[in-house]
Description:
The protein has 258 residues and is an all-alpha fold. The protein has one domain: Formate dehydrogenase/DMSO reductase fold (Up-down Bundle). 82% of the residues lie in helices and 0% in strands. It has ten helices and no strands. The chain has helices at 4-28, 34-59, 64-67, 76-100, 104-129, 140-161, 164-192, 194-199, 201-224, 229-252. The radius of gyration is 18 Å and the shape is globular. The two termini are 23 Å apart.
Amino acid sequence: MHELPLVFFTVLGQSAAGLYLIAYLSKKLGLIDLNQLKNANILAFIIVVIGLGIGGLHVGQPLRFFNMLFGVGRSPMSNEALLSGIFVGFGAVTLFFTLFMKKPLLRELANLGTVIFGLAFVWSIPQVYNIATIANWFTEYTTLQMWMTLLVGGGALAVIIGARQLGVLCFIVGSVAIFASRAGYQSFLSESGPQLSAEQTPFWAFQLVILALAIFIFAVTVLKQRMPKTILVTCAGAVLMAELAGRIAFYNLWQITM
């Protein structure tokens, strides 16, 4: 699948942005300590770098990435490339002032910048795909699912580092939104691309089953306050796989409107 690098790039990037946001807010609310925030920032940085590295395979030659920057301001793809770079840059600076040159004020400013540009990066992604000539993508459901990955993937990852209250809340909100919108989304696709939509059923079914199971596990985690770390890590990994499956289905809907 030619778009598979973009599947990983978007899902991992959005999930990392969600983790940065949820961990930062959790620290401000006193729900996690500084060490947990540090772990969250390390994990989020690793994930976004992996996503960016895999996404680079779609470009072919690494130097082509810089060619994409020539259209900043007028090209959604150029805006996405620029914001992804700034996002990763702020993430790296945050870790620098956290692990090496320990400057609390600079770390705080860099961390806030990472959160802000992470959100800007997530905003830029659906702008690339809301294309009038591709009817299956030209819908508000495209934007919705991109933002929900931030909540679902970021929430699941936040649970791992200890931000359980806010992480589970974000995960459940995102999952419920996905469930609630799925009927309307498929109704739209039944008109714009019925055959392609039907072919994506296994991917969507896998996504929804995993999300339903994860809701149960995370809800139990909050109620019991204790859950083996291996189960939480496995659950978060399964959630990312579910979002990857849903994104594969999205890219499979590509079809030029006649």
